Here is the input.
Amino acid sequence: MGVSLSEITTSDAASFRQMEQLLRRAGLRLDKNLDYSCGLFDESGRLLATGSCFGCTLRCLAVDPERRGEGLLNLLVTHLVERLVERGVSRVYLCTKAANSPFFRELGFYEIVRSSDGLCFMENRRGAFSGYLQRLSLNRSDGRSAAVVMHANPFTLGHRYLLERAAAENDRVFLFLLSEESGPIPFSVRRQLVRRDIADLDKVVCLDSGPYMISSSTFPSYFLPDEDDTILAHAGIDLQVFLRVAEALGIRSRYVGEEKSSHVTAVYNRMMHQLLPPRGVEVHEIPRLTRDGVVVSASSVRQAIHDGDADTLRLMLSEASLRYWESAEAAPVVEAIRRMASPRHH
Here is the structure.
C-alpha cells in the first residue's frame, strides 16, 4: 500500500483531528507550540504517522501501533530535519521518553542528558555537548564559584543587584546570558548592555548560554507558558543540563530572583530548590530590588519603553542603559517593542 507525506495545518480539520487522535493513542498531548506539522497517510487518507517541529526541535512524533516497524518514523524524522535545514537550522534537538531513545540513536541522534522522570534530551551532533562543556571548563578557577542565569530582556538595576549579591558572597560568578533570540530586543543588544553595566564587577564572568541552557529546545515553556506538568518536564531537563555545566565549572551555588509574577519561573525556582541542593549546588532566592517602593523588573522596563514612561526608565536603569534607550541607535528596537500589544509578557 502506498504512503504519502503531507503537511498538516489547522485549516485541514480532518487531518488535524487525526493527528490529535493518533497522539492521544500514543499517550501524547498535542504541543501548543508548533510551527510545522506533517503526516504520512495511506491511500485511503488514514494517518499512519505524524511529527512536528518548533524552532530547532522535533516534537509530537507518533506512529500508528499497527504500522510500527515499517520505517515510518525514519521517513518522518528525515523529512523534518530536511525542513529545518532548509530554514538554516542544522543543529536539531528533541525530548523523548528514555525508552524511545534507542530508536532515535539509530536515526543519528545522541543523548545529552536524561531527567529523573524518564525523559531524554537528544541532539543530532555527536560530541557537541561534551565539546561545549570542555570549552566552558577553560573558565574554571579556584575558590567558591556561583552561577546566575538571566535573559536580561533588558538588563536592569535589579539584575545588577542580584549579581552584586552573588559577587559579595563568592570568589567568581558565572553569568550565563540566554543567547537565544526570543523577543524584540536582539541578543547582541542585550549582551552589549549587560557587559557595559557589569564592567566594574571584576568577579563576574559573562558567558553565552549557547543552545543548551533555558532555550526553546530544553525549556520552551520559559518563553511560552504551558501546563504545569509540561513546565516541570522542561525544567527537569534544563536543570540536568545545568548540573553538567556546574560540574564543568565547579559551581556550588546558583542565585535567582524571587518570583511573584511569572508562574512559569516560580515553578522553575521551586524545582531548583528540590533538585540542585542534593547534587551539591545551593540555591539562593533573593528578594527583588525595589526603588521608591516599586519592584524593579525587565517587564516593567519594556512596558515603560512601550509607553514612553521616562520616569520609570530612570528609576530602573543605569545611566549607561538609559543613554542607550534614549539614543538613535535604539530607535529600531524601541519601535519593535512599541508594535507589541503586551510587551510585559515577552
